[in-house]
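Q: What residues go here?
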């Protein structure tokens, strides 16, 4: 069942979303060649706690950190570590927080110093596909209108969308129904209604869409070793259209 949120609940989700957005902003300012992903995790955890919120990923199914940091061919769920980011890397940072029991979830892929034109194109296309998906989050449309807008844009640029991981509803749990795939047939899927809140999150690979999980049981990488990027926003479907909740 897709849970419809009241205006009051959406206001709490705005608060959670703003905290998540501020974490991503702080991380974007801290990222530089030589910084470790564990340092980024520390910064995130301390800020979330200072806001009287909780890091949503910490201990989630045993995840050992407050954010996910996925570098280059890593797609999602990378574990922060003593790995130092290097000039030319791209790093996808996924942040979740709960405030007064309501969740926000967002992700962004950042360049580390100067990156290749291909890496920059991947970032631009992935971010562009998210914005195109969000535009479809309107009452009266169907869920896979979002999915199709993302897939069509990505594939037209010659990249692929990951199939094994998808977006999700969000509210008093980080993951609620429905699943929000980044591929699908327009005009199909559940009817979108005012008060639904969706975490829309395209994961885009330069090469094939196939992925595998590393021995650490968490880190998902592209099977062909190609670069991957990930952008996500938590989005409320309101009468007049979509509102991005994970924004400053
Ligand atoms: Mg998510």
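A:
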């Amino acid at each position: 069942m897709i849970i419809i949120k009241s205006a009051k609940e959406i206001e709490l989700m705005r608060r959670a979303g703003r905290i998540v957005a501020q974490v991503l902003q702080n991380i974007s300012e801290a990222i530089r060649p030589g910084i470790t992903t564990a340092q980024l995790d520390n910064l995130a955890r301390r800020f979330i706690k200072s806001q009287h919120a909780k890091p949503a990923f910490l201990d989630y199914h045993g995840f050992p950190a407050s954010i996910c940091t996925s570098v280059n061919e890593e797609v999602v769920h990378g574990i922060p570590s003593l790995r130092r980011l290097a000039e030319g890397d791209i790093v996808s940072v996924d942040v979740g927080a709960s405030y007064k029991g309501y969740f926000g979830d967002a992700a962004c892929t950042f360049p580390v110093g100067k990156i290749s034109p291909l890496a920059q194109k991947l970032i631009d296309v992935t971010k562009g596909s998210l914005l195109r998906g969000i535009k479809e989050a309107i009452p009266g449309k169907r869920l896979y209108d979002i999915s199709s807008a993302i897939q069509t844009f990505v594939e037209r640029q010659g990249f692929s969308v990951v199939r094994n991981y998808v977006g999700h509803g969000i509210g008093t749990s980080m993951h609620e129904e429905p699943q929000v795939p980044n591929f699908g047939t327009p005009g199909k899927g559940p009817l979108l209604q005012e008060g639904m809140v969706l975490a829309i999150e395209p994961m885009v690979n330069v090469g094939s869409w196939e992925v595998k999980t590393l021995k650490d049981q968490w880190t998902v990488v592209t099977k062909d070793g190609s670069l991957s990027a990930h952008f996500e926003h938590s989005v409320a479907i309101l009468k007049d259209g979509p509102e991005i909740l994970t924004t400053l």
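A: Context that may help when evaluating the design: DSSP finds four helices and 15 strands in the chain. The radius of gyration is 17 Å.
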